[in-house]
Amino acid sequence: MDPLLRSELIRYGEMAQSCYDAFDYDPFSYYFGGCRFPRRAFLDSLHLTRHGYDVTRYLYATANIRLPNFFTKSRWPNLWSPKANWIGYVAVSDDETSRVLGRRDIAIAWRGTVTRLEWLADLMNYLKPVDDNSWCGKKKSYRNFFRSFNKKLHHSIRSRLRQVLTEVKRLTEKYDGAGEEVSITITGHSLGSALATLSAYDIAETGLNLVICVFSFSGPRVGNVRFKERLDFLGVKVLRVVNVHDIVPRCPGFLFNEDVPRVLTKLAEGLPWCYSHVGVELELDHKSSPFLKPTSDLVSAHNLEAHLHLLDGSVSFLFFSCFVSYNTSYNVNIYSIII
């Protein structure tokens, strides 16, 4: 693998992993379900200052399902927020990192599923139209991913979508207005991967003339063929990193997916179980790594840290080629991904 691509994948993968590491799992904590660290000290607390980013905003959300209150709750009588969970952040590259990259990079990191309520919401997903006036047939995406993405929260009057778009607009106006080249990179694992794809779609639909790239780790299928075609039309670049033994990237859409002949998906595209992956896939195999145990445990195959170990030094099976162009001796652009 190209060393520059490898380092970029690990960097953004560690950003996604930081969403798990910073999540407050302690039910005895007042901030249970929130972030353990203040925003300004977030990357420093996780020893990630080497990446050269500054966190500018935290993101909050909750699953959009109504169930009896039998899930684990904080032992505090007055929780900081009884309905919302911290689920990610927006960060921007500092001056030194921007000089090396050749652009000001806005990074958005999404956390994957950690609570039982979120897991149940994932299992209840099915396709839902993205809008009423699609450009070519009905574009559809995961129902609960999309509803959860637009859900208004107790913690914030803005939905996840509004939180992201507001911050992206603010940062774009600040740096693009100053004459800098700006890019947007979105990363996430599992549920966070689906949210990364959806947020990239929504940002691209606003008409911003920016390079938008998604680094997806162990993500499920998000939408149907029309959704994939629209994402391609908008110019969003998606690189999906998956473990061949992980079942999450293979669902939903066990029967009708991108591997089925186009004529069959055309006939079944109106059904709520017809899905298609987006972007380009990079397959990894933990059983081929000399550094990881050849376990058959499904949870381990889905683990993000295992993916990062595989990227950092083991044999991987590449089904794509990546064109890396050098603007100067320092400036690097890895966003032109060619099948």
Question: Explain this structure to me?
Answer:
With 339 residues, this protein is an alpha/beta fold. Helices cover 32% and strands 22% of the residues. It has an 8-stranded mixed beta sheet, sandwiched between helices. The chain has a two-stranded antiparallel sheet with strand order 4-5. Strand 6 (182-189), helix 7 (191-205) and strand 7 form a beta-alpha-beta unit. Helix 1 (3-21) runs antiparallel to helix 11. The protein starts with a helix and ends with a strand.
Which keywords apply here?
single chain, 339 residues, alpha/beta, eight-stranded mixed β-sheet, two-stranded antiparallel ribbon, disordered C terminus
Question: In short, what is this structure?
Answer:
This protein has 339 residues and is an alpha/beta fold.
